[in-house]
Amino acid sequence: MSAQKKQDKGYKRSWKNLLLNKRYQLRFTLFMVGLSAVLMCLLGWWVMTVAHRATTVAINNVLGEEICKDPSAQATAVDPDEAGPVEEEPAAAAEPPPVAEGDSGKKKPVVTIEESDMQILDTPPPGEKKPGGTNAGEPPAPAAEDPAALRATFEQCKAHQSAQIAKLEGRKRLIFWVLIAVGSMLVIGLLFYGIKMTHRVAGPLHKVTLYMAKLKDGKYDTVYNLRKGDHLVDFYAHFKSAHAGMKKWQEDDVARLKAVIAAAEEGKLEGRSPELAAALAELKALLAKKEGSLG
Amino acid sequence: MVKRNHPPRKLSNYLLNKSLQLRYVAFVTVMSAVISGALGYLIWRQEADASNYVLQAFDAFTKDAELRGAISDRLQSGDDRLILTMAGAGLGLVVVLFLYLVVMTHKVAGPLYKVSRYFDEMAEGKLGNVWALRKGDMLQDFYVKFKQMHDALKKRHKEDNEAMKKFIAACEAAGVGEGGGFGRELGELRAHLERREQALTTS
Question: What is the pTM of this model?
């Protein structure tokens, strides 16, 4: 009993030995990993689509809420080809959002989508200040029509817009990398979990295989218990019974042969005939072999 | 390896080793259901938000309650249809996955079940015939090793029987073993040999 406990304690799981039955373990693990990877890719694709749409809406919102007026463009009635994309984009996006006017001519709020959670917010019409005065982060309006001040305001406005857009793009990138990290963690985690889980089946099978090899070679060693947490406990119990059954044959044979040989020697049968002597010698050899196999 | 016609797989026999099979099947199915559920929830949220957006945009422009109701109903029915479609697809995925995994794990549980039955026979001291696994079964390597062990035991069993038979035949030829202590032991050996022979014929 103590020897068995010692033996059970002696075998600990080692990461090096996790892949005992590669074909079985990898088949099950890779199926699980592949399936979750496909589902995660679909999920990731969807999340990125939504994130991209939300970012686009939010960027348009930034460009629409805060229209930077280029003083030089205003002064010289610029050729549209020379205006460049930076100036042109806000102009396109700056197209005032649809504002409905009722019969009374009263303006109604338009809706915009908040980029983080796609919530719809009431947006004050362009030119109208948000409650609480100046919108947070917005540059203050120039006090006078001084060209230098207008230029400075324009630059400040553009810088503010760029920062906002960069922040939004950064968030989108963050979502992408978080998805990649989560997906990779899931796949790696499942890979290890799958191998560990299947190892709990492959382990007992490996153990049974080793005992079967011994039985094949005619060695009837003691069969020790499985490790804690191993699966196939019932299967292993069947194997132990089979091993015991085969061992019992050997023990019965030994007992029977011992009795016959003892009786033959007692009766001095060896001298009766050379065939009998040879058969008796063979029986003795068989007995020795069987005793040796029982250890 | 002797081949014989195997009975076809029965649906009721697919869960041969419930604890082994259901553990894996349940894990993969639940995990897929969770990921699909998260995906479905996101799609539903997106669709619901889009519907709300349309209604809020509508409210911003007009107060036509009748038209709003019609649009709302249409959007709602669209959302409901989407939920049903996604629930159906999710359920279909889970059911198909469940069945597929039961079949897949059965290909492991089947050979284990078969070997267990041979082990039971061996536990009773019987060494009958070992038949081949079914096509598509897994654990072929393990089964080959089991069969090699079984064949070796059987061969040795037969050789031992031959040695015993030879001794009994030599005793009979020499005219010994008809009575006395040795005769009794020889009778016991004959009975023992008979049991050993029976162990080989039973399958």
Answer: 0.69
